[in-house]
Amino acid sequence: MNTDVILLIIAVAGLLVTFATTLYLVGYFRSASSSSVEEKDPRQAVAGGVPRNNNRGGLRALRHRRQGAAVVNENAEHRAQAVEVHDGADNDVEEATRYIPPICHLHRHVDNIIVDRVVGTSRKAMQKELKRQEREQLRKAHRKRMEAADADDAAREADLEAMRLRQEAEDQVEFDKWRALISVEDAGTDADVVDGSVDDSNLLMQAHKVVVLEDVAAEFGLRTEDARDRVAALVASGRLSGLLDDRGKFVSISDHEMNAVATYIRTQGRLTLHDLGRECNRLVRFD
Q1: How many domains are contained in the chain?
Q2: Which domain holds residue 92?
Q3: What is d(CA 159, CA 161) in angstroms, rounded to the nearest whole number?
Q4: 195 located within any domain
Q5: Are 255 and 270 in contact (CB under 8 A)?
Q6: How far apart are CA 207 and CA 60, in angstroms?
Q7: CA dist., res. 136 & res. 142, Å (int)
Q8: 103-182 and 255-268 are packed helices; what angle lies between their axes, rounded to 10 degrees?
Q9: Is residue 178 over pLDDT 60?
Q10: 118 inside domain
Q11: Alpha carbons 193 and 229: distance in angstroms, whole number
Q12: 121 domain residue, yes or no
């Protein structure tokens, strides 16, 4: 910007010098024309044969001629100097203006520089804004992906929790079912079980891990249905511990073995009948 201002000042100075030189030359040539007219007048007077009145007039004419010659010589010298000055000024102006563009071009150049800078600034600002918008879009996309991932994780955790609750409920139901099969609760007591044969049947049940109710009925002279009822009454009263099935068999199970089976079911959760039977065969002694 400073270079442009300096060039503008030099151009204006050159124009002023050129204008001053032109004015000077115009004034000089006008004065030279006036001197030529004055010089021609005495000569024309002499050539026309104008009579001299006296010697004073001749001396005056001679003096005028000499003055005219001196003026002519002086004018010639001034003209030569003026030509030299003009040539030098022209050279200086040409040299000075050789590298200076015209004022209109200079203004146009300055305007172009300003426009280029404004356009460059606008372009940079636009690029900066585009980059900012791009970063903002990437940030929003990343935030949406994270929110979607969090939502998926929350849904997955909710599904797992619901599955766990269902599993626990099913395990509890199955455990209660097997618990009911192993231990008979809330059963009544047969009023007929009052004689000593009850103790004998109890000892018989405990002596054998698996007994057939028909054999028990034959041993004590009872019907099979009565033997079943007496065994159920003993189990309900807590005097006998075991499992009575629908096929007429009774499996004697101690409290320790029953607790071991219950603990296994509770720790394993959901299991199949095959696994439960295999574990019962391992935990319960049948010999």
Answers
A1: 1
A2: 2-100
A3: 5
A4: no
A5: no
A6: 187
A7: 10
A8: 160
A9: no
A10: no
A11: 10
A12: no
